[in-house]
Amino acid sequence: MVVSVIGHGRVGTHLQKALRQAGHEVVWLSGRDFTPDEVRGEVVIIAVRDDAIADVSRHIGNTTALVAHTSGSKPLSTIEQKRRGVFYPMQTFSKEREVEFKEIPLFLESDTDMPLLCQLAESISNNVRELDSENRRKLHLAAVFACNFTNHCYALASQITEEAGVDFSALLPLIDETAQKVHEMSPIEAQTGPAVRMDMSVIERHESMLSGKAKDIYHLISESIYDTVRSKEN
Amino acid sequence: MVVSVIGHGRVGTHLQKALRQAGHEVVWLSGRDFTPDEVRGEVVIIAVRDDAIADVSRHIGNTTALVAHTSGSKPLSTIEQKRRGVFYPMQTFSKEREVEFKEIPLFLESDTDMPLLCQLAESISNNVRELDSENRRKLHLAAVFACNFTNHCYALASQITEEAGVDFSALLPLIDETAQKVHEMSPIEAQTGPAVRMDMSVIERHESMLSGKAKDIYHLISESIYDTVRSKEN
To answer: What is the pLDDT of residues A50-74, one digit of tens each?
Structure first.
């Protein structure tokens, strides 16, 4: 299939590569300075930041192609073309790291072209599902907790290990095991730590070692862990 | 070596097993109802909850053995015996899951018996270091962020995927990649998501989808991510 991918960011970069590797002919364009006559193919994928999707769709203008965006949080209606879709890969992409696209969950939506979109998605991933805009928006929010906020917990931990004179790499076996555990049990079952039993002697000492937002985060998440574990018990 | 392990909880269970597998003779006792005459061996490891360590040490009473506890947050001085130590395995243990003890970082402290403690530790782990009480307490705090708080982010994400009608397992490739990334780059470099660029249209919509402590956590961590990324740029 001939596919245009618009966007030179992380998602566009990884997506055009996966499509090429699956044997598609890919036209890869920059979201900032493409001209409508460069856009070709049966499917056009807009992989630009959320706020620019509507502008890019408008700039493409009239086309017989299916036009899809890759955003978790923007609705299908962000695309102005009649043949429209969403092609949301739920993964964290870095320019420097290869990812195995076959395992990335792809969430699709279209009111005109589900079979075509599905065919394209299944050529690069074994993990393809249909999901509407409202539930996709929820899923994107879940991804923010599971990825972005998790990574920030790592970042706060790395600042503390540095203060302790220990290399961050000492935490990697713990980080890996924490991720592996939830393959086998639910995160609520997997929960450990002083907040589970509201061990105030440990919690108060920890809070006394922190300052600023890290201290507020410690307090709030500890309370939330306790509430969550307790609501499961009741 | 003959080693007594006191404590039938998660740490005690995994530790006595690893010690047996390494060829030691292990006397495994319950922290609640052992009698001092049952305690034998050159090393006695107290693997009970933080608040019970001092009581267990007192109950053991006079002994020529080295007595060590396994707590990240309690100081060496919690042990009342003259030959005393700390043997802190930094990992999250579950009763149901096997762990590869060889890869677990073990942090040791002793003012009387470092060589003996080190010999015992190196028989079960390839990752043994010395660390004093103050820095171990910091490290334990880092572990709370990297493990307990990370797991709570998974738990909040699981509640949201449930509302979206999507199985939690859809998040596993994202969770695994988030953990894998910090093997190759620092968590600050790995940070992605709407908070990095304070994308208020996404952040405000996300906050409107949340309530209670999850909403407060979203707001606070987003601000903390923005501060962290900005302080790195400056």
So the answer is: 999 999 999 999 999 999 999 999 9
Chain B CB contacts of A142 below 8 Å: 157-158, 160-161, 164, 166, 171
Looking at domain B136-233, which CATH architecture does it have?
Answer: Orthogonal Bundle (1.10)
Q: Which fold has domain B2-131?
A: Rossmann fold (3.40.50)
CA angle B144, B145, B146 (to 5 degrees): 95
Give strand pairing partners of B25.
B2
- CA angle in degrees (0–180, nearest 5) for A205-A208-A210: 120
User: Do the two domains A2-131 and A136-233 of this chain adopt the same fold?
Assistant: no
Higher pLDDT, A94 or A189: A189
The encoded tokens of residue A54 equal 């509507």
* pTM assigned to the model: 0.93
Contacts of B118 (CB under 8 A, 6+ apart): B108, B128, B130
Listed by start position, the domains of chain B span 2-131, 136-233
- Number of residues in chain B: 234
Q: Tell me which residues of chain B, numbers 65 to 124, contact chain A at a CB-CB cutoff of 8 Å.
A: 73, 90-94, 96-97, 99, 103-105
Q: What is the mean pLDDT of residues A5-21?
A: 97
- The answer to whether B41 touches B6, Cβ cutoff 8 Å, is no
